[in-house]
């Protein structure tokens, strides 16, 4: 009797393993078939860039840190004419808007917004990207009994939006073609 019970368990285990393998292969082939690809490192058609203003906003500073070793980022005193491209990052605006109140008029929900404008040009003045605005927004609930925790959450959400904006700028810069630089 014990031998029959053991062989049943082994057969069930083998069927489950086979089923898991089939489901995993189906999921992998479905994702690969739709064109999904993990985002890798960005490659740029330029070797140097000047990010202005210097030191600039938090977005500009994070952007300078985000370029890999393949791209030279001009520092403070370096003339921007030595760079292949000039990236102007400006008008970083952070807003906090009330979107929900309770019946007694107390705030229950905010919407955090962040907007940044960018302009990409050559040292000769040719605009490659003119005055593009990138914006992000996040919703955050509010509770007056947890004000300090909500302030910390708000700071984290702003930092997350800032990182998302930097990644969007980097993807746009990766799309600049070498032919556009001439």
Q: What does it look like?
A:
It is a single chain. This protein is of the alpha/beta class and 182 residues long. The protein folds into two domains: 38 residues; 134 residues, Double Stranded RNA Binding Domain (2-Layer Sandwich), CATH 3.30.160.150. The chain has three helices and five strands, in the order αβαββββα. It has a five-stranded mixed beta sheet, covered by helices on one side. The longest helix has 32 residues. The radius of gyration is 26 Å and the shape is flat.
Question: How is the topology of this model organized?
Answer:
Blueprint: H1 2-33, E1 48-52, H2 58-66, E2 72-73, E3 85-101, E4 107-121, E5 127-141, H3 147-174
Parallel strand pairs: 1-2, 1-3
Antiparallel strand pairs: 3-4, 4-5
Q: Estimate the strand proportion.
A: 25-35%
The level 1 CATH classification of the largest domain is Alpha Beta
Distance between the termini: 83 Å
Could you say which overall geometry the principal axes of the C-alpha atoms support? flat
Low-pLDDT residue spans: none
Largest sheet: 5 strands, mixed
Order of helices and strands: HEHEEEEH
In short:
The chain has 182 residues and is α/β, with parallel strands linked by helices. It contains three helices and five strands, in the order αβαββββα.
What are its keywords?
single chain, 182 residues, alpha/beta, Double Stranded RNA Binding Domain, 2 domains, 5-stranded mixed sheet, 3 helices, 5 strands, 38% helix, 30% strand, flat
